[in-house]
Amino acid sequence: MQLTFRWYGADDPIPLAHIRQIPGMRGIVAALYDLEPGAVWPVARLAALRDRIEAAGLEFRVVESLPIPEEVKLGGSGRDAHIEAWSASLRAIAAALGPSSRATGSEAPVVVTYNFMPVFDWTRSELARELPDGSRTLAYDEAAVLRMDPLSGDLALPGWAGRHGRDELARLLCRYRELGAEVLWANLAYFLRAVLPVAEDLGLFLAIHPDDPPWPIFGLPRIITGAASYRRLEAISSSPANGICLCSGSLGCDPANDIPAIVREFAHRITFAHLRNVKLTGPRKFEESAHYSGSGSLDMAAIVRAYLDSGWDGPVRPDHGRAIWGEGGRPGYGLYDRALGAEYLLGLFEGMSAGMGREKNAHRGQKTL
Ligand code: DNO
Questions:
Q1: Distance from C-alpha of 157 to C-alpha of 138, rounded to nearest angstrom
Q2: N or C end of the chain: which has fewer CB within 10 A?
């Protein structure tokens, strides 16, 4: 596996040099975050980002995310032009990072993460809940979310830039509520049938992020919620580019999702692994915990075991961290707790893969990670 870390570019208070000091850290997960959904990404800006990351001794092979305009998800009249623009950004990504770019020394495939969540990306009701150990974390309580009015203007969601004005947001919510899950699926299929051949030609791998949390919110449909969704996704296209970003923390909020079983069933589709824990505190209620199994509800060792048993290889990132040791900054995306998470994951992978390869390599004294 390749250990990676999400970095928000020039706006990120965390220097690349600090990320470089996390043992085993190999790659940066980044994007052109200042560009609006629908904009074509310029090759020169991607190349500049790549150069900056490489100058810090890291590699840039994973894009998260290339956002999809609402008109595509809604199946609106302008969708073809937006899909063409999205494909043009794929070409730019391939030119800057892909096999046709200058030699980066990396053989790792280039992955492009996206999601198909209407309007809001990941949603929480609290951004800084204090835990008994004094750290602060993101939390979700369905009852609190149901009391929120997304039109009130003061909704502070971590994954939502609030880019729509009140009237536009009201129109969007209305259109999605009328659309329903089946049409959203049809619109995803339409999108994938257009972009997968482009990605495949360019040698890129897409990675759809699950809906977080994996159930409808504010009456909006959400469709990437567990194993059944992945079976349906695979039925749309068997292209190798039709990949999954398996986020243990997002799917793990629903206790019906057995993450190790999902990893085993879909390892061949997983192009990017987000590994984080979550503590379920009641029905549709959870707190983001530290990565360690003992801190949350997921058995992280069983999840890593499922990846290793499946012979899976690919980019992995620690996901959200708590705010610890007085660190402020972007909710979920500080340095310290994610670095602890990275080391914990590295330990699980190293310990288990050493165990698995011991018989094979013991006589040669080889490292097996
Ligand atoms: C949250 C992230 C998501 C993810 C997008 C991918 O921390 O995992 O915002 O980047 O959903 O498109």
A1: 10
A2: C
At which residue do the structure tokens 């993101």 appear? 138
Atom of ligand 1 nearest to the CA of 67: 12
Q: Tell me the pLDDT band of 315, cut-offs 50, 70 and 90.
A: very high
Q: Is the CB of 277 under 6 A from ligand 1?
A: no
Per domain, the residue ranges of the chain are: 2-368
pLDDT of residue 77 exceeding 50, the answer is yes
Q: Which of 64, 119, 244 to mutate to test the pocket of ligand 1 (most atoms within 8 A of CB)?
A: 64
Q: Ligand 1 centroid to 28 CA: how many Å?
A: 15
pLDDT at 166 (0 to 100): 83
pLDDT band at 233 (very low <50, low <70, confident <90, very high): very high
Q: Which residues make beta-bridge pairs with 175?
A: none
pLDDT attached to residue 308: 98
- Decide whether any atom of ligand 1 lies within 6 Å of the 115 Cβ: yes
- The closest of 147, 238, 250 to 192, measured between CA atoms, is 238
pLDDT at 104 over 80: no
Q: Which CATH superfamily is domain 2-368 in?
A: Divalent-metal-dependent TIM barrel enzymes (3.20.20.150)
